[in-house]
Every structure is written in structure tokens, then in C-alpha cells.
């Protein structure tokens, strides 16, 4: 069961710090409250992907899927080619994990 957040913490900061924290929270796709909780608990905070990064991610996923399918079709005909293709797929997979 998810606990409701009922406790309040008052935090004093400068106006500039407050604005900066709000921008950082927005970039992470979080409310200021959730952002501060995650930051305070040393949880992973990441910015959302830009439109260009999202398009690149989608393209890499398509390439990975296409190459995997091609490799599976050619597995019996040329094992070396298949191995090289799967090495390429693994390299793309590593780059995709950097987005997550």
C-alpha cells in the first residue's frame, strides 16, 4: 500500500536557488516536491529526453530490431556474418541503455 505524504518540511532558500530547483525539477519531469525528495534520498535523477534524443532513441530501436531479425534469418547461411551482426546489435543495445 502506497503511503500518503502528509509531513511538511519548510526549506529556506534564495529566490535564485528556488528558480533553479524548479527548472531542474521540470527538466526531470517531476514536481519540485518529488524532485527534492529524490535528490535528498540520493535517488537517480535524469532529465527528460529532448525531441532529437527521443528520435535518435527510436531510430536505434528500429535498427536494433531490424538487424536482429536479419541476423536470425542468416544464422544458418553464414555464421561469421551473423556474429558480426549480433556484435553490432549488442553495441546499439549499450547505447540504448545510456538513454534509460
TrEMBL record:
It comes from Leeuwenhoekiella aequorea. InterPro entries: NikA-like. It holds the Pfam family NikA-like. This is Mobilization protein MobC.
Amino acid at each position: 500500500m502506497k503511503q500518503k505524504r502528509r509531513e511538511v518540511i519548510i526549506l529556506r532558500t534564495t529566490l535564485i536557488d528556488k528558480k533553479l530547483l524548479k527548472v531542474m525539477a521540470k527538466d526531470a519531469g517531476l514536481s519540485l516536491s518529488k524532485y527534492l525528495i529524490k535528490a535528498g534520498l540520493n535517488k537517480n535523477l535524469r532529465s527528460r529526453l529532448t525531441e532529437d534524443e527521443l528520435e535518435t532513441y527510436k531510430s536505434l530501436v528500429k535498427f536494433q530490431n531490424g538487424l536482429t531479425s536479419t541476423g536470425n534469418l542468416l544464422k544458418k547461411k553464414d555464421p561469421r556474418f551473423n556474429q558480426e551482426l549480433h556484435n553490432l546489435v549488442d553495441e546499439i543495445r549499450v547505447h540504448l541503455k545510456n538513454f534509460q
